[in-house]
From TrEMBL:
Sites annotated Transition state stabilizer: R20
InterPro entries found in the cross-reference section: DHquinase_II (IPR001874), DHquinase_II_CS (IPR018509), DHquinase_II_sf (IPR036441)
Name of the featured protein: 3-dehydroquinate dehydratase
Membrane-crossing residue ranges in chain numbering: none
Domain of life: Bacteria
Functional description taken from the UniProt entry: Catalyzes a trans-dehydration via an enolate intermediate.
Organism: Fictibacillus phosphorivorans
Top EC class for this record: lyase
Coiled coil: none
Pathway stated in the Swiss-Prot or TrEMBL entry: Metabolic intermediate biosynthesis; chorismate biosynthesis; chorismate from D-erythrose 4-phosphate and phosphoenolpyruvate: step 3/7
Active-site residues from the entry: Y25 (proton acceptor), H102 (proton donor)
Family: Belongs to the type-II 3-dehydroquinase family.
GO biological process, one term: amino acid biosynthetic process
Length: 150
């Protein structure tokens, strides 16, 4: 395995995957997501660590702690995406690239979900592909560090 390690942070209510609005978010659980991404990361020769928190402050601490420890962060900030300037500032304060992900297509949903205050400080946003949003983020990081993209 190479020395590329990535932190995957899931924000509020993502611990409810499989139970919360399955028509929007699907029937798979957060454990299912972790298992799928661990399998993919092994094929991409990268390490992944997973964290989930419903607390804005804890997400900020995780971002801060990632600086110097991880080569990138895949972040689904959940509802914090739309209004947390504190998470936005945490991302801007670290020297770790962040890819914002969402399971649903936030741009096809309620008006308030269409605004991301964190997007301007990330290297990209992927939404609307369910678990594949995370998969695409790992591929994007893989290409980013090979110099093929981003």
């Amino acid at each position: 395995m190479n020395n590329r390690n990535f932190l995957i942070i899931n924000g509020p209510n993502l611990n409810r995957l499989g139970k919360r609005e399955p028509g929007i978010y699907g029937a798979k659980t957060l454990d299912d997501l972790q298992n799928e991404l661990e399998a993919l990361s092994a094929t991409l020769l990268m390490g992944v660590s997973f964290k989930q928190s419903n607390s804005e402050g804890e997400i900020i601490d995780l971002i801060h702690e990632a600086d110097g420890q991880f080569q990138g962060i895949v972040l689904n900030a959940g509802a914090y995406t739309h209004y947390s300037y504190a998470i936005r500032d945490a991302i801007a304060s670290v020297d770790v690239p962040v890819i914002e992900v969402h399971l649903s297509n936030v741009h096809a949903r309620e008006e308030f979900r269409r605004e991301s205050v964190i997007a301007p400080v990330t290297i990209g946003q992927i939404s609307g592909f369910g678990f594949d949003s995370y998969t695409l983020a790992l591929y994007a990081f893989n290409n980013h560090f090979k110099g093929d993209a981003i």
